[in-house]
Structure formats: C-alpha cells, structure tokens
C-alpha cells in the first residue's frame, strides 16, 4: 500500500490507542489469516532477522512496520520456538529508538556469544534532506529478553559503497567471527563486503575485502547475503536486485538465489569454485531468505513470503507478509535440497488416502507421488466452477508449472500469472496449504515453489484434473 512518508515515519509513540485498535480490527476482518505460519499481528512483515539458537530455544525475529501494510519505520519483532514449527511472539521488540537507527532497525542476524545473543543489524538513518546513512550496529539480548544497544557504530559506510549498505550476517568460521554485508558500488553494482572481528571482539570489525563469489555485478544491489555451511560446503543465499535475466531466468520483481561453493578462502577473500547462480525458489514469492548453522552443523533457513514493492490483497486489512516454514538445507551428490523440518509431522491430526475433496478448510498437507512420463494436473483451492490454483506436473515435457490465474484475488499480474521450473521427472511432491499460503517441495526438496494465493469464498476443494497422483491427505492443526 502506498502511504505518505509522514505516515510511514510517524513516531511509534504518536499512534493513539484508538488508531491501534482500529488497525487490529481491520486485521481481524481478513478471511485469509494463516493457521501455522507466522504473520504480523498488524502491519507489514518482511525479512526474517536474527535466526539463531540461544538459551535452549530457536530465536527468530521479523522486520515489521506495525501500523499498516506499507514499508515504514521498521522494528524487529521477536518470536521463539522449541521445535521450529510452533513459534510464539514474546512481546520483545528491537525498536527504532536510537540515534543510530532513527529511521528503522533494518535487517540483520544474531549469534550466541557467552551467555548473551549478539544482534548485528543495520541502523537506517536519514538526515533533514532525507539523505541516508546506513550504520551497521549491535545489541546484546540477555536470557530474559532484555535488549541493550551498543552506542558505537560497528561498521561505517566505506568510501566505495553508496547509501545501499546493509543486512550484516555474522557467522563463525574456524573459530573466527566474520560478517558479510550487502552493498552497492559507486557504479551501482551489487557486491558483498567481508569483515572480521578483531580478537573475536564484536565491537571491532575490520574489513577483509570484497568477497569474490563469482558474481557478475549485473545486479544493482545485493540484499540479505547469508553464508551457511551445508555438509561442509559454503552456500551463499542472497537477494540480487535487478539481476540481468540473461544470467538467470526469473519472473518475480527480484529473485532470491543461491550458489554452492567448494571452499571459503578467508584471505582472498573468495568463495572458491562457486556454482552458477540458481533460483532458491520457483514460486510467486520468496525473498530475503536467512540461514544459520547449528553447533552440530545443521543448516536451517526461513524466507519472507512476500516481495518488496508489491501490493497484496491483504493490504486493505492493514497487514501483509508471512514467514515461510523453516527449511533444513542439505547437499546430496552436490545437489542442493530444502525440506521442512521433521517436526512438521506433529501438525498432522488425521490422515486419509488422497482423493478429490469438494471442501477442505485449506489447512492441510498432501504427500503425493506421480507417474513417470505422464502429465498430471492438480487443482488446489478448487471451486465448483473448476477454477483454482493449478499445479501441472508435466513429466513428458520435464516441467512443473504453477498457475495462479484462476485462483482468488489477482495481484502483481504484471509479473505473470504462472511460474515454472524444468525438472526431468517430478516423482513426488509434499504440498503445504495454509489458508492463503502454499509451499510445494518437489522430489524431496530439489525444487521449491512458495506462494501466496488469496482464495475467493468457495475455493476450498482439491481436484485431480488429469493424469494420476496417489498418496495421503493430512489434516493439519488449526
Ligand atoms: C530486504 C530489505 C533489506 C532491509 C530491509 C528493510 O527486503 O530491503 O535489505 O534491511 O528489507 O526492511
């Protein structure tokens, strides 16, 4: 939703209780609230932030402007989880209340150090002329959830970077803390800066250099770069804005991508033998994915189900955006896989053999297998007229297609109404439906489609239109 700057940057304290109550009432009127995905209580949710494990719990914050479906003065909102499936909002927030984050507590990461959680994020600061000064800043969160901001700026904007410099990700490699930060060069190309903490003191960051990851610089900015180690290999997850489509085919306004690399050379600095760039997700929306490694090496990530600069049908209800399921990352024979965590099965309340269903509550999981060399068409959110969200598994042409054109309220149609990926044989799919969210994991997470769909009343069915599919329907907890 487009709102004037004065509204979007109005101080939090100036919003009256009545205004806040009205916003809450608007949200409550939405027919599309999700059951088992994180959504903002009010306003806009964007990037996952500070995804980490601390104090015996998973920690996950999200970017939020609480007063409507627009990108305004951002805060971090804290959630925690024991199982990566059930997340609870704690009421803890990282607010834009310091001179170093006066115009927004922008995205960043977190890492447990001793008995505290170190939060590394971007303070968005603007002067009277609205000129931006991005500051990489820090805070400690203790076990009681008390947040104490540092007063020092940890990394100032370097001379070879424009105002677009943000989203620090801290990680440890061979006992040393490093951070990568998304940047734009003076000639408007996206790149990534690498820093290291001197003597592992998170107050003292020194530039190592520009991280060579085999990028071409065809993008104008790299947002939310993340380095995770998957089965020992460095994998770069990033959101390159303006990436040239000759480099990678994509339809969303901005893609979310990855590269699998062989080694991390901290001296060069470089991600050595980087693969070509790939789409992390083939659906209509997945962006700003954030990953982290557990002490045992497991790699998890979570994505914003939403995109910058796009209006959504929920905007009229004063909220926008959701968090994806948490995905576990693995590599097998050099191939990258993303899968829901095993505990997702705990949401199942009953099961039955897969068959057409005239009516569901749009809160279920399907585990399906398909026939080789056959084309299968499946309609989700199906209505009486035969409209709905069409998933085509085309094992003749070697393609998977998701067509949203007949499903619910249309939006962002200038970016097309279908998405597809090439895949020789799609043998199986795990599909999660949650009211207005669909996440599809094909061939054990080899390809993923994450999307919103805003069904009309009556779009609640499941129908096999052609071909064959067998498997199980699981009712999921509301
Ligand atoms: C990505 C992003 C980040 C920034 C944040 C602000 O969606 O633009 O680069 O830190 O959102 O909300």
Structural class: mainly beta
Compute the gyration radius: what is it? Answer: 22 Å
| Each distinct ligand | beta-D-fructofuranose
Number of strands: 35
Number of helices: 2
Largest sheet: 6 strands, antiparallel
Across the major sheet, the strand order is 25-35-26-31-32-33
Share of residues in helices: under 10%
Low-confidence stretches: none
Tell me, rounded to a whole number, the average pLDDT: 98
Describe the structure.
Enables the bacterium to metabolize sucrose as a sole carbon source. It catalyses: Hydrolysis of terminal non-reducing beta-D-fructofuranoside residues in beta-D-fructofuranosides. The chain is mainly beta and 478 residues long. The chain has 2 helices and 35 strands. It has helices at residues 5-8, 17-28; strands spanning 43-54, 57-65, 75-81, 88-94, 105-113, 116-126, 132-141, 147-149, 161-173, 176-185, 190-197, 205-210, 221-230, 233-241, 257-260, 263-265, 270-272, 278-279, 287-293, 299-305, 319-320, 322-323, 327-332, 335-340, 348-353, 363-370, 375-382, 389-394, 399-403, 418-422, 428-434, 437-442, 447-452, 461-466, 469-476. It has a 6-stranded antiparallel β-sheet with strand order 25-35-26-31-32-33, with no helix packed on it. Strand 11 and strand 12 (205-210) form a beta hairpin. The model has no long low-confidence stretch (mean pLDDT 98). The chain binds beta-D-fructofuranose. Beta-D-fructofuranose binds at residues 46-47, 63, 74, 106-107, 122, 166-167, 223-224, 288, 308.
